[in-house]
Amino acid sequence: MEYMSIAVELIVGYFALLLLTKILGKTQITQISAFDFISALILGELVGNSLYDGKTTILPILSAIFIWGSLIFFTEFFTQKSRKFRHMMEGTPALIIKKGKIDFNELKRNHLDLNQLQHLLRAKEIFSVRECEYALLESDGTLSVIRKSIYEIIQRQDLDIPAKPASLPLSLIVDGEILYDNLKLVEQKEDWLLMEIKKQGFLSSKDVLYAEWEEGESLLVQGY
Known about the structure:
Blueprint: H1 2-24, H2 34-51, H3 58-81, H4 83-90, E1 94-98, E2 101-102, H5 104-109, H6 114-123, E3 132-137, E4 143-147, H7 156-159, E5 170-174, E6 177-178, H8 180-185, H9 190-199, E7 208-213, E8 220-223
Antiparallel strand pairs: 1-2, 1-3, 3-4, 5-6, 5-7, 7-8
Helix pairs in contact: 1-2, 1-3, 2-3, 3-4
């Protein structure tokens, strides 16, 4: 009898959540904001916890889903009507890279470190910061980018340009710390790196927010 009760609760909960997701729209699945993420967790918990509570019947489960779903629905309604309320609940995009320069204050404000930024850029097939003109951190945590015009993707065969070997850009300094493993990969020593950053006006690696090496290019160095 217990297994039958669990099965019935699962089936009812499944269709109730499916119906609620259809009503609330696709933002529960894609372009998920912090609020949408929390609401999805709570909805799952409402059904999951009820399965292990023998005193809970189907009616309280449906009531809880209905009440929470109504709160989400009205919240979404007000976010569409009020711009201020929408910004408060869903957040606003942040300009992380502006005119090719990393905005360190925006990184801190959005609790994003350089490694996470590099990961997001690589997901957009940008392996070097020097290729990016603008990067916008969306409210759902994704990154929208605009490449520098010189790095816009074109087919070499269209312009009859000879191909050159591909190279992998490597970070040599991140947040003032020298990445010695990457320094070994470029077959250089710390003295060379310090000399290169001094050429660009930095006295120490501690003064450097980000330094990137790429074969055939000058060292990209940016301070705080």
